[in-house]
Amino acid sequence: MYASIAPTDRPFSPDRNQAFIGFVGSAEVLSSWRGSDVVEIAMMPGLGRGFIRHDQRVGTIRIDYK
Fold it and tell me: Which of 9, 18, 30, 50 is deepest in the core (most CB within 10 A)?
């Protein structure tokens, strides 16, 4: 599973909008914006077996993991 943040005014591009989180397996992921510069990511236990990527920022946006 991977997740990216992309602007709404242009098409998504995996080259331009690279994933900020990725992991092997599956899990329920809940996301919510807190203001315009912080996104909260909550992961419910599942079959996830390890992170491939786990960034703290995407440009000026902070990622807050719970």
Answer: 18
**Interacting residues of 11 by C-beta distance below 8 A, sequence separation 6+:** none
Cα separation, 23 vs 33, whole angstroms:
21
Q: How many domains are there within the chain?
A: 1
Mean pLDDT of the 17-32 span: 86
Question: Has residue 49 got a pLDDT over 70?
Answer: no
**Full domain range(s) for residue 56:** 2-65
pTM of the predicted protein model: 0.74
